[in-house]
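QA checklist item 7 of 12: single-chain prediction sanity check.
[x] sequence parsed
[x] length recorded as 68
[x] structure emitted
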Amino acid sequence: MSDHTHDREAAAALDALRGALAAHGITLPSLDLHLPSYAGRYGTPPLITLGNCNPATAQRIASALAKP
């Protein structure tokens, strides 16, 4: 990981999302930094790849987001 501010921002967001999902028992194996946007320098933070998930995981995410 580089020391670039945007890279640190993206890594922190990735860690926060991974932790929040784990708190609901949800794991997205493909959750990671989007490598093409990480490798490119566009003046914005790298994208975060959420990846694919099965229908049961999608439903768990939807349920977790729907809670007040």
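[x] summary fact logged: The chain is about 55% helix and 5% strand.
[ ] second reviewer sign-off
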